[in-house]
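User: I'm new to structure prediction. If I give you an amino acid sequence, what do you actually give back? Let's try with this one:
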Amino acid sequence: MAMTEPTSRRRRISKGALRTLAWIGGAVGFLFPWAALSLSPKPAATAGIQVLPGNQPREIVVRHVIRRIVVEEPGPASGAGVAYVTSGGSATAPVAAPPPPVTTGGSTPPP
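Assistant: Good question. You get back a string of structure tokens that encode the predicted 3D arrangement of the chain. For your 111 residues, that looks like this:
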């Protein structure tokens, strides 16, 4: 073949055919993992549980612990240097003022 002869151009695939091939390839790539997992052999139901003679399953005991705080008035035998301190939400603590209302910056007032 001489260099002066024109070469024939390879024909291109249309856009529609190319899009169809892309959709088919995407669907196959998306569904392949599920197909591979469904075709793989399933393990036996007792394969994960191995009870050896020295390794018996233990009984699990669940205990709910409830703590109570009992407040008693000091008796006459209490010492003079004892101070009683309350913790957390004391009723005599000063209450902070509520924060100012939040504005939305729009034309409607906040609820």
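You can read the tokens as a compact description of the fold. Here is one thing that stands out. The chain has a mean pLDDT of 76.
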